[in-house]
Structures are given as C-alpha cells and as structure tokens.
Amino acid sequence: MLCQIMYLSRSKHPKGHESDALILASAQARNEEMGLTGFLFRTEHSFLQILEGEEDKLDIVMNLIRGDSRHEITSEWPKQPAAERSFGSWAMGSGPIPRAEIEAMQDPKAGDDIVWSAMLGKLRELAQTAA
Ligand SMILES: Cc1cc2nc3c(=O)[nH]c(=O)nc-3n(C[C@H](O)[C@H](O)[C@H](O)COP(=O)(O)O)c2cc1C
C-alpha cells in the first residue's frame, strides 16, 4: 500500500553544514533503490521531511532515519495511506521552508484527512518553488 509519512526534527548542525549534502546523497541513492520519493525541507535548525512509497520500504527507511544521530525527531505525523504520490518527481528533493510555515502546522493527529491534505498542498507548493 502506498503511504506517506512526515516528521519534524532538530538538526545537530546548522543549515549549510557539510553533512546536509551527505544526508541528501545517501537519501537519494537509497530512495531510488527502494522506490521512495519525497522532500526534505530545511530551516536554520530543523528538518521537515515527507517520504512516500510502499509501506514496507517506508518502514525500513524510517527506522534508519529515526536512528540517525545527525538529528533528533521532535514530532512525527501518523503514517497516512495515499491514493497517489505528491512528490513523485524527487527521489529526495530539498529546499528551504519558512519557520512560520512550520509554526502554523497543526498537531499530529490520526485520520484527519482534511488537515493532512491541506498541509500536503502547501508543502507541494513550497517544493515546486524551491526546485
Ligand atoms: C534529516 C535526515 C533525512 C534523511 N532522509 C533519508 C531518506 O530519505 N532516505 C534514506 O535512505 N536515508 C535518509 N537519511 C539517512 C539515514 O538516516 C541513514 O543515515 C542512511 O540511510 C544510511 O545510509 P548509508 O548506509 O548509505 O550511509 C536521512 C537522514 C537525516 C538526518
């Protein structure tokens, strides 16, 4: 089943640190292998990532990401089933997100499809302007 997952994390290093490029390179390589797509948004001190793909592959990669000491996940939205991909053009795209957009996001809640699709729409807009 196609699913999407999203989390917010505190980065160990500030935006632009050399680890950013390494994270992105290994993400793109593995995601391509696993058929995952998504986008990694960055503020000065945080990551907001959305990842999508088949549930079993998504779970494997999310476990790697959870255990990565280059960041610490501070909130994670419940995994959502998806009818289609929203970020299908990126094995892992990257770009900035204004702090205010993150602050405006609602708390993670299960099954709130309206809030979820509004967030996805907004993030897709940001991804398209960043890419
Ligand atoms: C913010 C962040 C986002 C990441 N996103 C991905 C991802 O989308 N896919 C992935 O395979 N690894 C991602 N990683 C890296 C994994 O946590 C892990 O380090 C990596 O998969 C190990 O790959 P390697 O064996 O090629 O070094 C991310 C790491 C961080 C810190």
Task: Summarize this entry quickly.
The chain contains four helices and six strands. It has 131 residues and is α+β, with helices and mostly antiparallel strands.
What report would you give on this structure?
The chain has 131 residues and is an alpha+beta fold. The chain has one domain (2-130): Alpha-Beta Plaits (2-Layer Sandwich). The chain has four helices and six strands, in the order βαββαβββαα. Strands 1, 2, 3, 4, 5 and 6 form a six-stranded mixed sheet that branches. The longest helix is centred in the last third of the chain and has 18 residues, at 113-130. The mean pLDDT is 94. This is BLUF domain-containing protein. Residues 2-93 form the BLUF domain. It holds the Pfam family BLUF. InterPro entries: BLUF_domain (IPR007024).
